[in-house]
């Protein structure tokens, strides 16, 4: 991965953040949950399928996995097991490197920030119940898994367009910088990308900027206040 610290990008005024795998270390837990379900039927959850599911709404992810492995179960059956495992595994999710520093910096300089996650309201509450001080920093949160205004999940751009529209000053979406970790999210909004370390390079090609973690992000490259 490369940090393009000497490159110049278009200036932005607002920032929109994905959550899973970007702000919180949850994608490894999701892989464990999906893997547990697949193993019951003799399959190993691996390969490009894991990246196709990454960042998708829960129901879409379930459909992709069921169809890929021809699992003898309905989407409802899959989700029932999935929700039970979520409660078991999502006990104390950690923040990813650089998250707290960047979010506090943007808030200190009055840069509007929003959350745009494919998680439902219930899933969001489960994963962030011990991180409320951090997530209260956001101007608003769009929970795509249960928000009626998000008609289509990633890679459709709906969730980011809804997030941009809900800022109080309704900025031009082109002035919003999207932070993502998943290929579907990058396709949904051309983004600053902090990918899974195992993500093949072909999935990062559309990103405006690719960095290893948020500690490497230089706000001034996008016309935002630099760190003090």
TrEMBL record:
NCBIfam families reported for this sequence: HAD-SF-IA-v3
Name of this protein: Pseudouridine-5'-phosphatase isoform X2
PANTHER family: 2-DEOXYGLUCOSE-6-PHOSPHATE PHOSPHATASE 2, PSEUDOURIDINE-5'-PHOSPHATASE
Pfam families: Hydrolase
One GO molecular-function entry: phosphatase activity
Domain of life where this protein originates: Eukaryota
């Amino acid at each position: 991965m490369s940090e393009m610290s000497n490159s110049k990008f278009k200036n932005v005024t607002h920032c929109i953040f994905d959550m899973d795998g970007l702000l919180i270390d949850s994608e490894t837990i999701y892989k464990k949950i999906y893997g547990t379900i697949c193993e019951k039927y003799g399959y190993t959850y691996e390969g490009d399928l894991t990246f196709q599911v990454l960042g998708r709404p829960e129901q879409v992810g379930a459909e992709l996995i069921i169809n890929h492995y021809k699992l003898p179960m309905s989407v409802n059956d899959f989700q029932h097991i999935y929700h039970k495992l979520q409660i078991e595994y999502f006990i104390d999710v950690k923040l990813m490197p650089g998250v707290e520093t960047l979010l506090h910096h943007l808030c200190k300089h009055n840069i509007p920030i929003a959350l745009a996650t494919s998680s439902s309201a219930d899933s969001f509450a489960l994963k962030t119940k011990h991180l409320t001080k951090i997530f209260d920093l956001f101007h608003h949160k769009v929970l795509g898994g249960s928000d009626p205004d998000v008609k289509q999940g990633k890679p459709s751009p709906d969730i980011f367009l809804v997030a941009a529209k809900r800022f109080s000053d309704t900025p031009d979406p082109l002035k919003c910088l999207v932070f993502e970790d998943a290929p579907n999210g990058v396709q949904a909004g051309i983004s600053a990308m902090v990918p899974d370390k195992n993500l093949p390079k072909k999935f990062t090609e559309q990103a405006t900027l690719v960095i290893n973690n948020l500690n490497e992000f230089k706000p001034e490259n996008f016309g935002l206040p630099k760190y003090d």
